[in-house]
Specification:
By secondary structure, the chain is an alpha+beta fold. It has 12 helices and 26 strands. Helix 10 links the parallel strand 9 and strand 10. The longest helix is centred in the first third of the chain and has 15 residues. The two termini are 19 Å apart.
Length: 611
């Protein structure tokens, strides 16, 4: 089935109906392109798109500001070939400019045609750049003094950065598929380094920053061989300025090296005592986002290592008057509808229509009826319908299943005992997972090869379900476990075993045993699930062969479990395809304990249709 917005009764006015009445009224012309000098002299390349080109004299527009490290615009070898010069921002340009918005697109310092050298991922220097560009924007004759920001992934987090400056012109942001905490949501979920992300994303950025066209062809967004590096600004007729900027990019940080420095959330870089991983996180600056700024957080159930946690935490953390949350059956950036029951691979949900309605309401000050809608919308997979709610999570009901003998999930506490498991370092989840798309790589058939992958894991399976049930929110795994080593990586996967024996991946979670201590979530990253600081202060080796309670959440999902299906929990100690090994070369033997004080899985379940 499709993910279109007519499935279910979630909206009073669907995004499709809204966009059908909000017709384009202006043309799109080539942008004006120029350099803006920042406080430290670094020159940033900026493209400005205005409705109908230069616009009528005296006409002022609300502005959408987008900052990107993926080129604001490419140079095109053959203009007649029909190549899209702006693959990263075309959707925003084509949605907003014809409907009366100015669009300002900036190359992040150290990328594209901008000067500078990047010292980190989402550097604090970039955050200050946002405010300076906003200052420039509101002084332009075409600006009405109101600014919004949006974008997918890095661009979405950049919109958080802009709002966190407290600039008075910022009225609305829509962070799409973007992190709230770079450590927990992205590179170190559960305190475990996603090594494949650091490697593959780093390779993509190196190819962009150093204009390695052949290497860029690995990434579908940049696969068109007619793309020829960043487009120079208008004044740079001979390309000398661009050449000088690209020379500065050679000194940019390297992602695998940088991320390996942040093994603990609270430890700074060894050469900069003020620089911890918090500096890279939008949540670190949450106090700067004024409560009158409208916020729309968007993600998908298969969105990376923890982006969905990030958008939920942003929604829970910010006490803004107008805030909205949308979670669909999507991967990172909604490139693919990941539901196993989809009828089409490409999403049909009109995401940009929903974002347009949001900006029309809160930035352009039009009455769209958005305030009459529920603030939370989410897609239930296997039922394939959209639901709405007044808050998140929509249900707080929980059902507990104990891990018991014979590798069963049972309702009643079993007798005391346990199951032994020797970590297999070759355990793999494949290359059709939630981790590929956040690295810029293609993935279409998510977890299509999941069948049989749990054979080398410790599995527990329930009896057939007597009725349909809906999982809606965060499942929480509580393990009473012994380890032969002072550290371990613990991965947990939840699957639905259908009546025909087909095993469908549902969700997963993980935690490094060293970080098992729970604490209250901080004010800038609020959760409804267990929180782990992943700090050196709270880190503690496992007592050899002494039992310890390890509790962590699996990534959230809304999924209908069918009558007759069985629920399966699979536990592993490695994912060689994506994560760094823990501990190095010392494979733990784990014993998962059963009994009243043993191990259990808590599920946020409701009757079908209640969720």
């Amino acid at each position: 089935m499709s993910d279109d917005d007519f499935r279910g009764q979630a909206w009073r006015v669907t995004p499709s109906d809204y966009i059908s009445q909000r017709l384009p009224a202006h043309s799109i012309a080539q942008p004006v392109s120029l350099y803006l000098a920042m406080r430290d002299g670094c020159r940033l390349a900026v493209d400005v798109y205005l409705p109908d080109g230069t616009g009528a004299a005296g006409t002022r527009w609300p502005t959408i500001q987008i900052m990107t490290p993926y080129y604001r615009r490419f140079r095109v070898k053959d203009d007649s070939a029909g190549t899209e010069a702006c693959p990263g921002i075309a959707a925003y340009r084509d949605t907003f400019v014809p409907r009366g918005y100015a669009l300002v697109v900036i190359d992040v310092r150290g990328t594209g045609a901008s000067f500078g050298t990047r010292d980190s991922f989402r550097s604090p220097a970039e955050r200050l750049d946002h405010a300076e560009i906003a200052d420039w924007t509101v002084k332009q004759s075409w600006s009405n003094g109101r600014i919004g920001a949006t974008g997918i992934s890095y661009l979405g987090a950049a919109s958080d950065f802009l709002a966190s400056t407290g600039h008075p012109a910022v009225k609305a942001i829509a962070p799409l598929f973007s992190v709230w905490d770079t450590y927990a949501d992205n590179y170190y979920p559960g305190g475990l380094l996603v090594q494949s992300l650091a490697r593959d994303y780093g390779a993509m950025m190196d190819a962009l920053d150093n204009v390695k066209g052949k290497e860029l062809e690995r990434y579908s967004t940049f696969r068109d061989t007619n793309l020829d590096g960043p487009h120079p600004v208008d004044e740079d007729q001979d390309g000398r300025l661009l050449e000088a900027a690209l020379k500065e990019h050679r000194g940019n940080f390297r992602m695998p090296d940088l991320m390996a420095e942040f093994r603990f959330r609270d430890e700074p870089l060894p050469y900069d005592s003020a620089f911890t991983v918090a500096a890279l996180a939008p949540s670190n600056y949450a106090d700067g986002i004024r409560e009158d700024v409208a916020v729309y957080s968007v993600s998908g159930w298969t969105d990376g290592a923890g982006y969905c946690n990030g958008v939920i935490s942003r929604h829970l953390t910010l006490e803004n008057t107008n805030k909205h949350l949308l979670i669909g059956p999507w991967d990172h950036g909604a490139k693919v509808n990941t539901s196993p029951w989809r009828s089409e691979v490409t999403p049909r949900f009109p995401l940009m229509a929903e974002v347009l309605r949001f900006f029309d309401q809160y930035l352009a000050e039009m009455e769209t009826g958005l305030r009459d809608e529920e603030p939370v919308h989410y897609f239930v997979m296997h039922d394939e319908v959209w639901r709405s709610a007044s808050s998140w999570p929509p249900t707080l009901q929980a059902e507990e299943l104990f891990l018991g003998p014979d590798r069963r999930l049972v309702h009643d506490a079993p007798d005391e005992g346990g199951a032994a498991y020797k970590v297999d370092p070759s355990t793999a989840t494949g290359r059709q997972t939630r981790y590929e798309r956040i690295s810029g790589l293609d993935c279409v058939d998510y977890y299509a090869d999941w069948q049989g992958r749990d054979a080398c894991m410790l599995t527990y399976t329930s009896d057939p379900l007597p009725k349909d049930l809906q999982l809606c929110g965060h499942a929480v795994l509580s393990l009473n476990v012994r380890s032969s080593e002072p550290d371990a990586a613990i991965f947990a996967y939840l699957s639905e075993v259908q009546q025909d024996g087909q095993v469908q991946y549902v969700t997963e979670g993980m935690l490094r045993a060293l970080h098992r201590k729970e604490s209250s979530c901080p004010e800038n990253y609020r959760t409804t699930w267990p929180y782990h600081s992943c700090s050196r202060h709270d880190a503690a080796p496992m007592p050899i062969d002494g039992s310890q309670r390890i509790r962590f959440a699996l990534l959230p999902v809304a999924w209908t479990l069918r009558q007759g299906s069985r629920l399966r929990l699979s536990i592993a100690g490695a994912d060689v395809d994506h994560f760094a090994q823990v501990p190095h070369g010392r494979l733990p033997s784990l014993t998962v304990l059963h009994g009243k004080s043993g191990s259990l899985l808590s599920l946020p379940l409701s009757k079908r249709g209640d969720c």
